[in-house]
Fold:
Amino acid sequence: MTLFQHYQVSLILSIVITIIVGLWVLIQKRHSKVAQFFCLYSLTVALWSWCQLQGGLSTTPSISLVWIRAMFYAVIIFPVLLTHFFSAFLRVDQRKMCLIGWILVVSFLPFISSNQFLRESGPLGFLPAMPRAGPLFLPFNLVWFGWIFYDWWLLSRGSQDGKGPGRKQVNWLFAAFVFGYATGCVNFLYLYGICLPPIQPFGDYGVPIGFLAIAYGVFIYGLFDIQVVIRRSLVYSFLVTLLSVGYFGAIYLIEGLFQTQLGYRSSTISVAAFALMALLFQPLKIGIQQLIDWLIFRKPHEEMVKQVERLEQEVLQTEKLKAISTLAAGMAHEIKNPLTALKTFTEFIPEKQNDPIFLKKLYEVFTMETQRIQEVVQELLEFAKPKTPRFKSVNIGPIINSTVDFLSGDLLKRSIQWTISCRHNGATIQADQDQLRQILINLIQNAADAMPTGGTLTLATQVNDGYLELAITDTGEGIPKELLPKIFDPFVTTKPTGTGLGLAMVQTLVRAHHGTISVVSTPARGTTFTLRFPL
Structure:
């Protein structure tokens, strides 16, 4: 291929690969700021490549100038996008630097379309037309490269504090970006009237290679906290298909070469070519499989799966031990108070066994405290070993209405108004009606307890991303900020007479329905519990 063809191919590869890698990372982790900034950066690089390609293909200097100027509207935001991306990736605060970066971007923007920045010019090397730098282009370059070097410095000191990603992840990302920029930035030389084959245009191949290296880092090091499990059989099948296509293609080319160069028409050489390629096919297949094992899997796939299963079991066991410890401590605390009261009264029985007032009080205390112990034990049993749900197709709307009607008397006594908004269009979920009602009763009663002087209770449903969402919102006292992370732990409560098992039991029941529960609360303004059940 000619240098001009390499120029076109390298930039087309850059456009395709940056878009694919950027969107793939975003799809894998669409709610992550790291993935969002990386995708935005990738699309900006694709825009740069497209404008660079069009500028190089233009035969008219004025049209080439338009495309290259448009390219710099993307290039100018590279450094600040990298600052956003690296700060999110490293989990460090760079808001001030990002603000300074955007100020610099805005200050340079008006000059991009002027001849002081870029001006028309004719052919350069293998390119039919390419603009030349104006007086302001060098200061822009100095600021631009200075900011890029700051971004690299920020990334290079990435995991020194141990709070961000691992050292291997940081080093891999650093190497990929430095390689991509070191090779891609040779394009600036065109604008200074410098064309240095073969550095140009082969340097443009470094940009797609850098992005492919980042994608490879996702597989090997879990970049951006993305875990991808590759089936070895699928990889091998794909490679065998490619090898088979190459096999028959090679035979066709060899036969065509002999026919055109030597003019043979014998079937003997064709059979010999087939035999030779058949002998080479299996060793090539084994060699490629070994290369893929080393590049992607590094260790047998079965061993990786077993290792993941072992880690999951260890985490599960740790959580079980933590739960048992929490339950034991909570039980001791909850039962200790009633037992203390009972012990105190029993110590006075020998002295006051004939005192009718004492005996009456003793009866009341014994009844009240034993009832308290019974309630704690019963709630603990329900939490520790809930009944297995009996799933069937359920419309949650009627269950919400009937549960609120059941509790309406208590809500009216407390001066609580309620609103029900069912916008799930009759969508059904697989659930146990009794357990759903138990979940709703607990959450509504909690909301009511948070509004001792009255307020508004709102229950709203909607369908979102394949899930039915139920939001229960109150205008009560809210949950203290320090309690929010552990609000679903057993024996954690904000109520003086509560056991702290209600929300823990609700979470257990929600998980049994393959759902999730989350909470958002603002002190003195209210709390919202959001439940999500798969459709």
